[in-house]
Specification:
It is built from 19 helices and no strands. With about 525 residues, it is mainly alpha-helical. α2 runs parallel beside α4, α10 runs antiparallel to α11 and α11 packs parallel to α17. The longest helix is centred in the first third of the chain and has 38 residues. The radius of gyration is 23 Å and the shape is globular. It starts with a helix and ends in a 9-residue tail after the last helix.
């Protein structure tokens, strides 16, 4: 499957997943709003999420796929499955072990390191929810490793649709279980959703002539390669989790609802990040690993540059939309039921500061994978640690004056710093064509700024005659937001056309080819 087709599949399914992700947050927010119960849920979610991130995400992103793909590229599929089985069994044992330890330690860890809530009942609820959701990283780990195997075979459909099921299950449990179970319905939905997320991928995996076994061959060279490569990445993700815990800890001591607003703003950031950069990066990663294993440096460089240009072409204008239209976006997506104007204002302000770092997040996704594909996990680790150190210092410094806005701003600055460092070191190693990338990026920035000016002007003009400054009807606000985004999009495309931005030229070339009439067959 080509990079373009794989990216298209992942973008379409991720758009659908993010829509359901929005609906999930909207349903949860409508039922709970700025309540201590919802703050407790988000705090409780941190520990299971950290276990998954430490044990699985590092091994999958930086180690498992490159090693598994290298065996497939050399037509050693049987050995590839032996390695995969050993890794999967080891990861499963680690996940179960960590979950058991945290189940026992939750009453001590939660109030000390995660959420120092003032109300003992809120702390007790957080502990209870944490213990319940400790089943989810086990199922998420199995799901992610199954995804890694399918992606190595360049099969993306079922693995890309799995998050749809995850979000849908949580929505159903929240909507129908809330009257009977309260906030526990959401936690149960997280566990069941993670299980179903794994199960829906098994049918496609069986079509790949699955050779899973109960082996635990930790002495195999491939398994040792996975452990060696995963080590630095796991340390980096562990450091990232420290940032999450610091932000959660600081936000827990702020006014009620601050933690929920921070989580919702961050989830809004993940919408375009998941749709564009993560989808493109995940689709291109097996190809990069394939080129790296065969020593095809030129093809690898071309794939990297193409991915960088496309990510910036999509994320720069998206960041402008997020900044200019942040208030109506939050209003339309989340302001329902118990999620009122105060929650909206907290969320949109934090969303503004998160939006400043969107391009940095997008670039880190692809640039880090270039290092991983080359089996270099040490460099990304060192740069991630620098970024995390900056993030923590900035969070502690800015939180007392800017509150959750300071936490979001600290994250954006640190992420942009990491992207710059990753690109600077990669430029010489991969022999990137800096002049071409620089000119392309400058054109994209100019087009995006023109787009922002156009949307800002449209919003201000339409606010005057229709009094849309305060809370208008949803349909009126939706119409204004769609028209503003449409005006901005038209200006961006026009500017991109006049500036001859290459990505738009590629789109137009494909459209012309599809619309060009095919020559009639010559009768024989």
């Amino acid at each position: 499957m080509s990079i373009a087709r794989a990216s298209a599949i992942m973008i379409v399914t991720l758009v659908a997943s993010r829509i359901l992700g929005w609906l999930r947050l909207s349903v949860i927010g409508a039922h709970f709003g700025e309540t201590p119960e919802l703050d407790a849920f988000w705090a409780a979610f941190k520990i299971p999420d950290a276990i998954f991130g430490l044990v699985v995400a590092g091994a999958l992103a930086s180690a498992f796929i490159p090693v598994f793909t290298s065996y497939l590229a050399r037509e050693r599929e049987q050995e590839a499955w032996h390695v995969a089985s050993s890794v999967m069994n080891a990861v499963l044992l680690l996940l179960v072990g960590f979950s058991i330890v945290m189940w026992v330690a939750a009453p001590y860890v939660v109030p000390t390191f995660v959420a120092p809530f003032r109300d003992p009942r809120q702390i007790a609820l957080t502990v209870d929810l944490t213990r319940l959701m400790l089943l989810s990283p086990i199922f998420m780990g199995l799901s992610s490793l199954t995804t890694g195997i399918l992606n190595s075979y360049r099969q993306f459909l079922s693995s890309a649709t799995a998050p749809l099921v995850y979000n849908l299950v949580i929505i159903l449990f929240t909507q129908f279980g809330y009257p009977f179970l309260g906030i526990h319905a959401v936690a149960i939905g997280v566990v069941v959703g993670a299980l179903v997320m794994w199960l829906v991928q098994l049918p496609e995996l069986t079509f790949r002539r699955t050779r899973y076994s109960f082996s635990l061959d930790l002495s195999h060279s491939g398994v040792r390669d996975v452990m060696r490569l995963a080590g630095p990445r796991t340390l980096a993700l562990g450091a990232v989790q420290i940032v999450f815990f610091v932000d959660t800890y600081l936000a827990s001591g702020m006014p009620e609802g601050s933690l929920t607003a921070l989580v919702y703003a961050n989830q809004l950031l993940l919408l375009p990040l998941g749709v564009f950069s993560i989808a493109i990066s995940a689709a291109v990663f097996p190809t990069l690993s394939h080129y790296a294993s065969l020593g095809q440096v030129g093809r690898m460089r071309d794939a990297v540059q193409q991915a960088i240009r496309w990510i910036l072409f999509l994320t720069l204008p998206t960041a402008i939309v997020m900044i200019v239209l942040r208030r109506p976006i939050v209003n339309l997506l989340f302001q329902y039921g118990s999620f009122g104007p105060e929650a909206r204002e907290l969320t949109q302000a934090a969303f503004l500061f998160y939006s400043l770092g969107l391009a940095g997040h997008a670039l880190v996704q692809i640039l880090a994978r270039v290092y991983f594909a080359s089996r270099d996990t040490t460099t990304p680790l060192a740069l991630t640690l620098i970024s995390i150190g900056a993030n923590i210092v900035l969070s502690v410094t800015l939180a007392p004056t800017l509150f959750i806005n300071g936490l979001a701003l600290a994250n954006s600055i640190a992420t942009l710093l990491e992207a710059v460092l990753l690109f600077t070191l990669l430029a010489s190693r991969a022999r990137l064509r800096l002049v071409g990338l620089g000119v392309s990026t400058l054109k994209q920035v100019c087009a995006s700024l023109l787009m922002g000016v156009a949307m800002f002007g449209f919003i201000n003009v339409t606010n005057l005659p229709f009094d849309l400054v305060k809370d208008p009807p949803k349909l009126t606000l939706l119409l204004q937001t769609i028209l503003a985004a449409g005006v901005g999009g038209a200006v961006y495309l026009a500017a991109a056309y006049l500036l001859r931005i290459g990505e738009l030229q590629e789109i137009l070339a494909v459209v012309r080819t599809r619309l060009r009439p095919r020559p009639a067959a010559v009768p024989g």
